[in-house]
Amino acid sequence: MAIEFTLPDLGEGITEAEIVAVLIKPGDTLKEDQGVFEVETDKATVTIPSPYAGTVEKVLAETGQVVTVGSVMFTVNTAGGAAAPAQEKEAAHKAEAPKKEAVAAAAPASRAASASAGAPAQTMQQNGSGKVAAAPAVRQLARELGVDISVVHGSGPAGRVVKEDVRNHVAGNLEQRITAAPAAKGSSEGTARHLQAVPQESLASKYGEAGGKSGALASQPLSTSSVELPDFAKFGPVERIPMRSIRRKIAQNMAISWSHIPHVTTCDEADVTQLDAFLAKHQDEMKQKGTKLTLTVFALKAIAAALKKYPQFNASLDERTGEIIFKHYYNIGVAVATEKGLIVPVISSIDQKSVAEVARELADIADKTRKGRIELERLQGGTFTLTNIGPIGGTNMSPMINFPEAAILGMAKAAQKPVVRDGKIEIGLILPLAMSFDHRIADGAEAAMFMREIVGRLQNPLSFLLES
Fold it and tell me: What DSSP character marks residue 454?
């Protein structure tokens, strides 16, 4: 029995993925749960397993191609092999239903081409009732961002509006109001690193493929109302490289954050001399436990404790209802620089984990994120973000809030400086800190007190022993 394998729903509103590796070929004997494709979404690189066992008949997707959810990837003959029961039912259902997936798979590229040629947004397809085709979660996002979904161009199957379309629409409107500011801010935030610097790579490998070959992304505009640029080629040689999925996502998120959140940044310093000595004293002990203590680990624990005292920084503002959503859980994202851009994996329930547990999880997510192997579920649910440019040597920053969160803390390079202790000048290890916050939710005095709570804990390592 021949069965078509389609790109499954990858969750979190992801509608398309770029194929980075094809792990099968016609004639291969396939086992159930065997990896068949490696795909890169706008969040991470994941391996897609096969729910079927059998013989591969045709492989319809190739490396470098951008495919949408529901696109046929390959066909497999399950004669002599057992298909997963759930997948058998799904295959039977698809055999009875009209097969529209093949048409829908080609639709995004054609719609992108028509959009770049000046086709109006009102030409997007609707369902039979005349209502815009979109999932409830997409409509909710549009309401939260103040977007009229009826004017958003749909890029999903059969013209369906997806979350990415709503965000593109918001980013496009921003570009008309703000010119250089988002790019400058995004560039500053993009320099953040965690634990170690990232090696340089070619522009083509970082942002896309040279020569403009990047599947549907090559012809799809980054926003629905882009700004026309001058002809730079008149002044000298240029190179055009399409943005690839992760870099595109960063650009869109930065634009949304900058346009919707009035950013204010407050700065402070922590004398971490005692904490540094504490780390050095217990480093060997922690290595025996298979982990490593760092300033970042203690900063994460200090943030979680401070958020309990100042919950306005562990919140989000619902612009549609005018309500502040206070989150009674403490999931802190850690900005990790990768070769493809800045990604923020999340450590959940930090307040309930020991210092050693946080240290182990931090090392794990940082390693997996750089390798593009971080699990999708560990990129979701963040309530606050920490970014650290200290390992690079940065002295300070003005970090960009990770929308829809309310605040982000930036750590710079700790350096020896003269300090006054008990009327005497001594040498101390001083850690610069900077926190950007949503001024609609919190005031400067509250931000200063929040920072002092973090500073107090970092300056006194024994304070972490008093946590319940």
Answer: H
Residue 297, φ and ψ in degrees, nearest 5: -60, -45
CB 312 within 8 A of CB 442: yes
CA distances from 443 to 263, 305, 406 (A): 11, 19, 12
- Pairing between strand 263-271 and 323-326? unpaired
Q: Rounded to an integer, what distance in angstroms lies between the CA atom of residue 421 and that of residue 433? A: 21
Q: Specify the amino acid at residue 112.
A: A
Question: What is the rounded distance in angstroms from the CA atom of residue 161 to the CA atom of residue 242?
Answer: 22
Q: Are 450 and 273 in contact (CB under 8 A)?
A: no
C-beta neighbour count of 396 within 10 angstroms:
15
The residues annotated as belonging to the active site are 439
The C-alpha atoms of residue 8 and residue 24 are separated, in whole angstroms, by 17
Give residue 50's pLDDT band: very low, low, confident or very high (50, 70, 90): confident
Helix-helix angle 163-177:245-260, to 10 degrees: 60
The secondary structure element, H or E, covering residue 317 is strand 315-318
Using 50, 70 and 90 to split pLDDT, how confident is the model at 245?
low
Q: What is the pLDDT of residues 82-115, one digit of tens each?
A: 444 444 444 444 444 443 443 343 333 333 333 3
For the CA atoms of 82, 94, 154, 186, what is the dihedral angle to 10 degrees? -10
Task: Please state the separation of Cα 420 from the chain's center in Å.
Answer: 42
